[in-house]
Design goal:
Elements: H1 5-17, E1 22-29, E2 36-42, H2 49-65, E3 75-79, H3 90-95, E4 100-109, E5 112-123, E6 126-131, E7 153-158, E8 162-167
Parallel strand pairs: 2-3
Antiparallel strand pairs: 1-2, 4-5, 4-8, 5-6, 6-7
Helix pairs in contact: 1-2
């Protein structure tokens, strides 16, 4: 029986939901004896060690009792998504509007695949980024930084064209 990450996500969401937690991402990586199931959870105000331990204990019990992970041993890791968390779902782009983000697209947009800017939000299946406005603004467009500031402007990126997207921590 082949393991499906979507099945793991459903189990994790069921457990997390009963405790007011959100599942941000589920990864199953490695092979042989080095297999790791990583669960990233979150809640308003952030997750605690107790939240991670609770989800680990409950999800681990379900997976082991139901024998959901065939092929022997694995390591279960449960953690918060971190300051540079992935943006995975459309709701993430709404929730983190106003935050700085770094986005990599599948296909180039305006001759670039890498963008960094302020997330304005989500409109009709596209994320809206405000890019430029600083000396490093050129870097956001995959171009070497210029000596003079680039004008601030908005760019729209199709959700279906996003390969990877993360928050950029601001201090």
């Amino acid at each position: 029986m082949a393991l499906k990450v979507e099945e793991l996500r459903q189990i994790t969401e069921r457990v997390a939901g009963t405790h007011g937690l959100e599942v941000v991402d589920v990864e199953f990586v490695g092979g042989g004896k080095a297999r790791v199931l990583r669960l990233y959870i979150d809640k308003p105000g952030g997750v605690t060690h107790a939240d991670c331990a609770l989800v680990s204990r409950e999800v681990g019990t379900i997976l082991d009792v139901e024998d959901r992970i065939p092929g022997g041993s694995y390591v279960l890791e449960v953690s918060s998504p971190g300051l540079d968390r992935k943006l995975v779902h459309p709701r993430d782009y709404e929730r983190f509007a106003g935050s700085r983000v770094r986005v990599r697209t599948v296909q180039p947009v305006e001759d670039s695949r890498n963008f960094e800017g302020r997330l304005e939000g989500l409109r009709e299946g596209k994320i809206v980024l405000c890019v430029g406005g600083g000396a490093s603004g050129g870097r956001a467009m995959g171009v070497r930084a210029k000596k003079h500031p680039l004008p601030e402007r908005q760019i729209e990126l199709e959700l279906s064209n996003i390969e990877k997207s993360n928050l950029v921590p601001e201090f």
